[in-house]
Amino acid sequence: MIDMSEILQLSPYGLPKEEKQKLFTERLCGLTTYHKEHCAAYGNVLDGLQIDVDKVQTYEELPFLPVQLFKTHALKSVDDEEVFKTMTSSGTTGQAVSKIYLDRKTSANQQKVLVKIVSEFTGKSRLPMLIIDSPSVVKDRKMFSARGAGILGFSIFASDRQYVLNDDMQLDLEAVQKFLQKHNGEKILLFGFTFMIWQHFYKELLKNPNCIDLRNAILIHGGGWKKLANEAVSPEEFRERLKSVCGLSDIHDYYGMVEQTGSIYMQCECGHLHTSIFSDVIMRRMKDFSVCDIGEKGVIQVLSLIPESYPGHSILTEDEGVLLGEDDCPCGRKGKYFEVLGRIKNAEVRGCSDTYGQ
Amino acid sequence: MQKSGGAVIPMDNKDIVYLFGARQVQPAPREIFDEEVCDFLGKLSEELRADVRAKQYTDILTFAFFIRRANLKLMKERYADAAYMIGKGTVFHIAPSNVPINFAYSWVFGLLSGNANIVRVSMKDFIQVRIICDAVDRLILDEQYRWVEQENAVVMYDHAKKELTDLFSAQCQVRLIWGGDHTIEMIRQSKLPPRSTEITFADRYSFALMDAKAVLDSSEQEMSRLAANFYNDTYLMDQNACSTPHMICWIGEGEQYRKAQKRFWEHISKEAERYTLEDIKASEKFTTLCSYLMELDTKQTDRYQNLLYVISLNKLPENITKLRGKYGLFFQKEFQNVQDTLVHLNDTRVQTCVIYGVDEKEIKKEVIHMHMLGIDRVVPIGKSLDIDLNWDGYDMIRGLSRKIG
């Protein structure tokens, strides 16, 4: 199996379809076999689904685990002593959260991949960074929540850091202004979660528009649109409104999940989410898991070349998406580009038991 | 304000929606299968069958067929030797929120056993509930059915309003709770008067018992009918009703098992093509499949697209009632004979045994012979959802009436 260190030498958006396919088939078949041998539960699923990795022609034929399983089962391919940290998804109280077990190697590769991908957008040098969150989310270093992990992961791009919110989630405008003054003339990196930015940053700035100038800044944000969709805020409106209150115009959403940290899907200048050479997406028809055509809505399968300490290299999400094209985005980057449409919608379930209360 | 049995009854509480019936139900116990009651139900059957809105709802039509005069007569005959049986008073029904038609059957049980009824239906406001209540509303304009309105009410209220559940519970002689373990637990927080009783429909487990040879001997036509019947028992309710089988136990020998299974599931997979598997259900179903594959000792899994999954087990887990499929996910296992099968199903949670090619009486006798805690029903494939006066191990008429001794 080709090692990550070799893949890390390549340009993140440089491989055309055929070459990427070859790389993915080799590495992902290798990972599938590896996890089958090192994670009994995963091996049971493969046996049960009667999958013979040796017969796989392309990585599209490889099995995927439903994302929910990471919430209900402790899935790892390393001994407990090698678990260097455990990451959890950001579920609301009472909800089960995913638990992802990382050893040093997988954790380091996540970081390296993130750097390769993000520096394509921010440039090679580190930037002064404003974190649109409160410092309290990263306090417990043993258990990383998705938010905390995101912040720590992106902090590697920072030459200097400032949290924008205090522990009570209040905007600390004075600190931000001081930070901007200190780095006057430098390009600023802003990072945060979409809903936090809207709720605690944009809405506060709206009370005092143009009190800060972020025309020379780049914002990277993730975490999904569900909460903003509830407030009827579209991605376009999000961008326009942010620009109107602080001049910010270089804004990049990203799609990613704690189950595949590092190999995130960045949004390009054309507004498309991109796969890099470290990750891929396949839209699936839920009738039979066949592969959707370009432009056809399906459920998103995410693939990452990174995971070695847990069997999370091929996961079926609960998100719907649509593939827009491959290798031909006007931004010039190779790879698939796509759109995420949101969660699969809930259905009415029949039966005797009152699962839904009313 | 009016006083009744010590409880203060608000005559018109704005938190309660009355779909029809009295603000204060007046109990006037009647003999079981009372003539006036049967006449009214027969009339309601005609009214529903003539209702243009009802025509598109097969569940309403099935219900209308259930309460047709001829069937009421048949049911009454089953109680021919039961003399001096009279209703207990008022029955408070808690209907489930995901089977729209169920409230109507529950109500009919209350009526046929001679009771006044308060039926709580789901806030989901199902169209089927409306259609039936509207039909009743039309009938009670007629002077001869005025009593229906005085002795019955169908109500809707926010389930969080425990004080209303308290209120109705305090007035009833029997409380009938559908909706499974969780609902029962919630409703039981409201007290019942000392003499009042309760019938609860808890979470149950059902399975199928099939004879491999019978499947192999069946004609193609019979197989198609069998597949349609099995579909109705399972997919029709998302495989989520308490009487829906999850586990298919095969009786046979040698090569018969494999051949019969193949034939059976191929027919089912064709039948399942009419099932609407929404994306979220496919996702949940695949997750369930993978979870079971992680935890169970499985021999083989057959997948017919995502419409049908069949997990063949090597070994049964300790608690067989944990083997629950959904949206068309089944387990199967081979057994020597009936006894050898039933040994693994001795659990109070086991409700319906759905059979094919096996003698119904033999199973019932074995349940007694083997001193079993479970199995309350034995029915042929296709009848698992058919509701009857004997349901879930209860004789509804006897459970809701009293005997003057």
UniProtKB/TrEMBL annotation, chain A:
Domain Acyl-protein synthetase LuxE: 7-355
GO biological process entries: bioluminescence
A Pfam family matched in the record: LuxE
One example GO MF annotation: long-chain fatty acid--protein ligase activity
InterPro entries per UniProt: ANL_N_sf, CapK_Type1_Caps_Biosynth, LuxE
PANTHER family recorded: CAPSULAR POLYSACCHARIDE BIOSYNTHESIS PROTEIN
Name listed for the protein in its UniProt record: Acyl-protein synthetase
Organism from which the protein derives: Roseburia zhanii
TrEMBL record, chain B:
Pfam families per the UniProt record, alphabetical: LuxC
Record keyword Amino-acid biosynthesis present: no
Keywords assigned: NADP
One GO-annotated biological process of the protein: bioluminescence
GO molecular function, one term: acyl-CoA dehydrogenase activity
Protein name: Acyl-CoA reductase
Annotated source species: Roseburia zhanii
Taxonomic placement: Bacteria, Bacillati, Bacillota, Clostridia, Lachnospirales
